[in-house]
Amino acid sequence: MTEPVMNTVGDEEVNPSLPRRKFLMRLSGLVGWTSIGAWLTGLSLASVRFFFPRVRYEPPTRFKIGLPEDYVVDTIDSRWIKEHNVFIVRQPKGIYVMKSICPHLGCAVSWFNSESIFKCPCHGSFFDVNGDVIGGPAPGPLARVGVSLDLAGNIVVDTVQEAGKTDQREKRAFLLKV
Ligand code: FES
C-alpha cells in the first residue's frame, strides 16, 4: 500500500489534491449561482407574461355588410368569406346568409359558379344554392344565420342566430325580404 505523496515547500506540507478540490468547489458554486439566476429569470418572465394574457380575438358575431342594392339578384356573393366565413345569397324572394362551414366535420366549402354548387374539399359533400345536401357525407344543410336591416337600411348579420334545419330557415330572422 502506498502512502499519499506530500510535497514539502519550506516547512509547509502541500496537498496536491487541494487545487482540484478548490476547482470543484468553484464549479459547484458556479452551477448553483447559474441555477438561481435561471430560476429568477424564469420567474421574472412569468411575471411579465402575467400582464399580457393569452387572448384569442374572434371576429365579431354581429356585423354590417352594406345595403341590399350592393348584392345582385341570383348571385352567390363571396366577399365576406375571408372576414366572416359567410356567403350572401340574393334571390328574387330575398337575401339570406349562409355559413361556409361544412356540417360534416367543419371544412370550408367553396362556391363553383359554373356548376352552381357548393363543394366541400375534405370528404366531397355537395350543396345546392339553398345549402341543401346533394351528395356526400354531410348530415344536413349549410347553416343560415340571422339577417336583418338596421334603421339606416344596412344589412346586419348575426351569426349567433343559426338555422340549421330547413323548416327554420324561411323564418323572418333568416330571410330578408327586400
Ligand atoms: S367536412 Fe365536408 S364533407 Fe367532410
Structure characterization notes:
The protein has helices at 18-50, 81-84, and strands at residues 7-9, 12-14, 62-64, 75-77, 86-91, 94-99, 110-112, 117-119, 126-127, 133-135, 144-149, 155-163. It has 178 residues and is α+β, with helices and mostly antiparallel strands. 21% of the residues lie in helices and 28% in strands. Bound molecules: FE2/S2 (inorganic) cluster. The site of FE2/S2 (inorganic) cluster (FES) has 11 residues, from loops. FE2/S2 (inorganic) cluster binds next to loops.
Which strand order does the major sheet show? 3-12-11-6-5-4
CATH class of the largest domain: Mainly Beta
Bound molecules: FE2/S2 (inorganic) cluster
The CATH topology of the largest domain is what?
Rieske Iron-sulfur Protein
Which range does the strand content fall in?
25-35%
Distance between the termini: 108 Å
Q: Detail the poorly predicted runs.
A: none
Radius of gyration, in Å, reads 35 Å
What is the approximate shape? elongated
Average of the residue pLDDT scores: 87
Number of domains: 2
Output the structural class. Answer: alpha+beta
What pattern of helices and strands is seen along the backbone? EEHEEHEEEEEEEE
Give the total of beta strands. 12
Helix content, binned percent: 10-25%
Annotation field: number of helices: 2
What is the CATH H-level superfamily of the largest domain?
A: Rieske [2Fe-2S] iron-sulphur domain
Give a quick account of the main beta sheet: strands, pairing sense, barrel closure. 6 strands, antiparallel
What's the architecture of the largest domain in CATH terms?
3-layer Sandwich
